[in-house]
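To the wet lab folks,

You asked to see what we're planning to order before we commit. Fair enough. Below is the target structure as C-alpha cells, and below that is the sequence we designed to fit it. If anything looks off to you, flag it before the synthesis order goes out.
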C-alpha cells in the first residue's frame, strides 16, 4: 500500500467564537487574518441563501415547516401561509443585511397555482426522502448508535411534514407515504444487519452497497444479503498477534 508522507511546517488555528487566527509564523498569521476578516465582512448571495436555508431547517425541526423550490436553480420558494409570521422574521433579517425579499401570495383555487404548489412540495419532500435513503445506504458496522437513532427521528419528521402538507400534495400524498414507509423498513433492515454483524466473530461491509455481512474466518468471497452481489474479502494479520 502506498503512503504519502510529509513534514508539517507550521499550523494555523481559528477561534470560531472570535474569528481570531493564530500561527507561529507571523507573516502567515497576518495574511490568514486578513482573509478571514475580509470574508466575515463580505456576505455573498450564496452566503445569505445558505443562512436562510439553515433558518428554515431549524424551524422545520420545531414546527415541520420548510421552503420548497419553485425552480430548479433555487431563488424562488413556496412557503405555506401557516408560517407567515416566521417568514416576516426572515424578511426583517434580510432587510437588516440590506437584502430584499420579494413575497408574492399564491392564491388557492387557481389550477396553475395549485399545480405549481403541488409540484414544488412533492419534489421537495421526495428530495428529503431520497436524502434519507442515501444516508441509510451508507450505514455500516462503524455507524454510531446515535446516528441510527437520529435517522429514525428524521423519518418521523418527514412523515409529519407529509401530513402537514397534505392539502398541497393532493393525490401525491399516498405515494410519498409509501416511499417513506419503504425507507423506514430499509432502516430497520440495515440496523438489524449492523447489530448482527457486530455480535458476530467476523463481518465485512459489501463493496457495492456497504451493507454489513456476517462472514467466517478465512472466507475469501461473500454474497451480499442486501444487493446479492459478490465481493472479495481481504484478511490482514492482527498487529497484536
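Sequence we intend to order:
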Amino acid at each position: 500500500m502506498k503512503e504519502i508522507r510529509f513534514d508539517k511546517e507550521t499550523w494555523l488555528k481559528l477561534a470560531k467564537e472570535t474569528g481570531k487566527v493564530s500561527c507561529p509564523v507571523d507573516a502567515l498569521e497576518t495574511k490568514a487574518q486578513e482573509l478571514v476578516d475580509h470574508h466575515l465582512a463580505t456576505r455573498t448571495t450564496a452566503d445569505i441563501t445558505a443562512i436562510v436555508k439553515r433558518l428554515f431547517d431549524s424551524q422545520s425541526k420545531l414546527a415541520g415547516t420548510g421552503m420548497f423550490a419553485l425552480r430548479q436553480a433555487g431563488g424562488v420558494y413556496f412557503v405555506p401561509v401557516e408560517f407567515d409570521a416566521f417568514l416576516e422574521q426572515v424578511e426583517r433579517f434580510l432587510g437588516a443585511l440590506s437584502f430584499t425579499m420579494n413575497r408574492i401570495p399564491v392564491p388557492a383555487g387557481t389550477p396553475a397555482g395549485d399545480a405549481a404548489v403541488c409540484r414544488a412540495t412533492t419534489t421537495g419532500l421526495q428530495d428529503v426522502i431520497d436524502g434519507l435513503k442515501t444516508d441509510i445506504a451508507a450505514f455500516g458496522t462503524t455507524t454510531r448508535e446515535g446516528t441510527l437513532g437520529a435517522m429514525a427521528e428524521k423519518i418521523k419528521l418527514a412523515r409529519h411534514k407529509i401530513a402537514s402538507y397534505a392539502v398541497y400534495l393532493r393525490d401525491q400524498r399516498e405515494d410519498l407515504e409509501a416511499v417513506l414507509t419503504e425507507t423506514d423498513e430499509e432502516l430497520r433492515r440495515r440496523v438489524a444487519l449492523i447489530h448482527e454483524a457486530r455480535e458476530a466473530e467476523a463481518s465485512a461491509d459489501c463493496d457495492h452497497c456497504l451493507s454489513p455481512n456476517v462472514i467466517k474466518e478465512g472466507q475469501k468471497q461473500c454474497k451480499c444479503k442486501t444487493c446479492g452481489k459478490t465481493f472479495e474479502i481481504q484478511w490482514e494479520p492482527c498487529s497484536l498477534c
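Structural context that might help your review: Residues 22 and 200 are 48 Å apart (CA to CA). The chain has four domains: 1-42, 44-105, 107-199, 200-232.

Thanks,
Computational group
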